[in-house]
Automatic annotation (TrEMBL):
Transcriptional repressor PaaX-like central Cas2-like domain span: 117-190
Compositional bias annotation for Acidic residues: 1-11
Taxonomic source organism: Micromonospora pattaloongensis
Extent of Polar residues compositional bias: 325-337
Bias type Basic and acidic residues, positions: 310-320
Protein name stated in the entry: Transcriptional regulator, PaaX family
UniProt region (Disordered), positions on chain: 1-27, 310-337
Pfam families (alphabetical): PaaX, PaaX_C, PaaX_M
One of the GO biological process terms: DNA-templated transcription
Residues covered by the Transcriptional repressor PaaX-like C-terminal domain: 202-290
Organism phylogeny: Bacteria, Bacillati, Actinomycetota, Actinomycetes, Micromonosporales
Domain Transcriptional repressor PaaX-like N-terminal: 31-97
């Protein structure tokens, strides 16, 4: 089973756009924190924020000024951020590609942790064979399979309890160029000693420990939230951390059938706790972000709005309004943050 800190990408990249979201690291990288912050408060509006305000927000999460400026520059180079300049000030906002990618990832987070439908008892099996000289292609295929909810039963044999959708089949075809076979089947009952069950492709006890740790970490925050004792920068940090942690669960536990899992599986309680914290702190966190940005713009920014689980469900539409600072002066080369 993949560790939650070994997932290569936060969300799958869109192959049709020049976008590279930051890689996962052991802990929170400055680039990852920056993307989470901008998505949490500007995803639906793609509001452009002063680079100085983004640096200040990152500083509240423990990122140094140098680290924050480097993260902004690298995200602009990856196509995640778009830069503009107004006078001596530089501004950044999420690119269209990043917003669409992050929106898809948000819907995936909630749908993959929702209650599972009845399982038909069949497994989708993906078998592939790629030579050693195509190691980069093999890594890309494994990363895509992992994001789609598959796990390796054996080295070149990945499985999922869910059917492979046509879009996912097309994605895999682009990565393998005919070197993959996909079929759906049931596991026959055998008397052979040492038979490995498909569910063993996932480390169920380890996943359970991650759920239990998540509940231990965030449950004590609820009474403090209800009494109004979590606000300002603390509310922003908590929302960033709870999102960064919870969004790893769909890859660890991709809606595995409950009848194959231990009684009292904690997927549902973890999802409810995530929603309680993320939505419960939306108000005070939004107020803090608005106030901080206003220090650099001189007025309240209409494009700052805390993203909620309802927004994750709804996603981002192509006609979503963008009440942000004018981007008419944007150049092809992003300005220095």
């Amino acid at each position: 089973m993949t560790s939650p800190f070994d997932i290569e990408e936060m969300f799958p990249n869109d192959g049709d756009r020049p976008l590279r979201l930051p890689r996962r690291q052991a802990g929170n990288s400055p680039q990852g924190v920056a993307v989470t912050l901008l998505a949490d408060y500007t995803l639906r509006t793609r509001a452009a924020l002063p680079s100085a305000a983004i640096v200040a927000l990152l500083a509240e999460s423990g990122v140094t000024t140098a680290g924050a400026r480097t993260a902004i520059s690298r995200l602009a180079g990856r196509g995640v951020l778009e830069g503009s300049r107004q006078g001596k000030r530089s501004f950044y906002r999420l690119s269209h590609a990043a917003a669409a990618n992050l929106s898809a990832g948000g819907r995936w987070i909630l749908s993959a942790t929702a209650a599972t439908a009845p399982w038909d008892g069949c497994w989708t099996v993906v078998a592939f064979s790629l030579p050693q000289e195509r190691s980069a292609q093999r890594r890309a295929l494994r990363g895509q399979l992992r994001w789609l909810g598959y796990a390796p039963l054996y080295d070149g044999l990945w499985i999922s309890p869910h059917e492979l959708t046509p879009p996912a089949r097309a994605q895999l075809a682009q990565l393998t160029l005919g070197a993959v076979t996909v079929f759906r089947a049931r596991q026959p009952e055998l008397d052979a000693v040492g038979q490995r069950a498909p569910i063993d492709a996932w480390d169920i006890p380890a996943i359970a420990r991650h759920y239990a740790a998540f509940l231990r970490r965030w449950t004590p925050l609820l009474p403090r939230m209800t009494s109004g004792r979590v606000d300002g920068a603390a509310a922003v940090r908590a929302r960033t951390e709870v999102m960064d942690t919870f969004r790893r669960f769909p890859t660890l536990d991709p809606q595995l059938p409950l009848d194959l899992l231990p009684v009292g599986w904690l997927r549902g309680p973890a999802r409810e706790l995530f929603a309680a914290v993320y939505d419960g702190l939306a108000g005070p966190a939004e107020q803090h972000v608005r106030a901080l940005v206003a220090r650099f713009t001189g007025s309240a920014h209409p494009g700052i709005r805390a993203h909620t689980t309802a927004d994750l469900h709804a996603g981002v539409r192509d006609d979503e309004p963008c009440p942000s600072v004018s981007m008419s002066s944007r150049s092809r080369t992003a300005p220095a943050p």
